[in-house]
């Protein structure tokens, strides 16, 4: 447009000059008659016509351009209005509000999103500029005070606090305040962005609860315990007071859990948690460590206070627990350590309470035991055995004994069970009951178990070469071995290396521990069976003892646990259980073997019930390999 305006100005200047010439020539014509002047006059008239045409054209063009500019401005305004509407819709659809307050002019601007956040109408905030502060949860008032100080100092303040909506609902607000100060460091303008973060806060609370609380019982878990005991030890140190740590474990919980099922076990743990909370009450705090283990933390002045609570807990377990209409009894064993007497840190207190718990179980369960220095001797003993186990294979301290498996009516040996023995270099013979659990816990059972399997197969191969080719060799296998990734390959390698037939090897698994890992164990047992290896369930009756599990397990033999055989002549219930196991085993086409036979009367009872196979001191004690050969010559029976 400026270019066209300049052209118009130029043409106006030209017409002004020509018009002047026209006036002069007209005056000249009045005095002299000259054709040249007439020609000039005509030229001026023509130029004047052209100029008028140009002016009219430029005027039309200018009008058109002006109309285009107006249309463009209208389009821009429409776009701006659409953007403003879109932005407003965004603010209205999300839980965000913007609060802008010019302190100097006292102008307040609030977006409508604040209605969704706070539950109050927008106008209410204009009428009462302090309304946002009045609805903040009283417990978060300190947050607002700290925030106000930051704002006055010109610092961006990011805060999270709770508000109470008109309906009583509590919501979390994330508030980012941005202040503006003048040159005199005085607050002149303030903007704030408010976001509803309630769902995030709820998620954070849930995650924190999961980290510090047990999902099953609702009690604080091990993490919650470690956090609490550290805090309470600091308080006890400042107050010069004492703490007691009670480590509680349910007696024979695994038997109950295995017999009744895991769902009943979970119900029992929930009931125990409620009982402990009500018994301890305000006197202390209850935690669930893991499984059936609970921790109780008490502050006390006199040790008799701790004894009283421990006795109250034990007494509270005398009543049965009702689980889905069924009465279930259980008892607790409790180990107790004290702070600062038994340790100055949480790990030491926990370890010593655990040691005292072990002592309580040794004393018959359903009792409590305070930690004493004697317990340290037991811990030293355990460490000594653990250290010795790691050297036992290298020092050739292990050896095998073999307990014959007898066909009772013919008193003939049909197989032998390989039993591990340890002749410790500086002590002599160590009981398997003492060192096997340590080997299990430390993982040493894997190399030790492999040594047992290999040497038993080597010995079995020798007996087969001597003519006893039908002799069955039975070897105990731990769950840790069974679930080892390379277990099948190691078994195949040993059979190949020793040239011992798989059909003459029987692997004994313990019922209770195997059932706890059934999903993992069954595929391994099936692969062993496919290779011709027999599977025996040891200590049957102490674990699940369920037809469902027996149907799933690839089993050839059931071995009735010694604890039932011991009482068959004096306890009718024990006799009934043994009879039931024998009948069930035969109906499922299993071999049934009675363990721990010690009297001829027990043999008579078993034969009456149809049990034809047995082991025990009344038949044969465990024998060395050289002694087994002597008995085989006269007592071997063909399978």
UniProtKB/TrEMBL annotation:
The keyword rRNA processing does not apply. Keywords: Membrane, Transmembrane, Transmembrane helix. The chain crosses the membrane at residues 12-32, 38-56. It holds the Pfam family PAS_3. It comes from Fictibacillus barbaricus. Coiled coil: none annotated. This is EAL domain-containing protein. Residues 157-209 form the PAC domain. It comes from the Bacteria. SMART domains: EAL (SM00052), GGDEF (SM00267), PAC (SM00086), PAS (SM00091). Residues 83-155 form the PAS domain. The keyword Membrane applies. CDD domains: EAL, GGDEF, PAS. Residues 382-636 form the EAL domain.
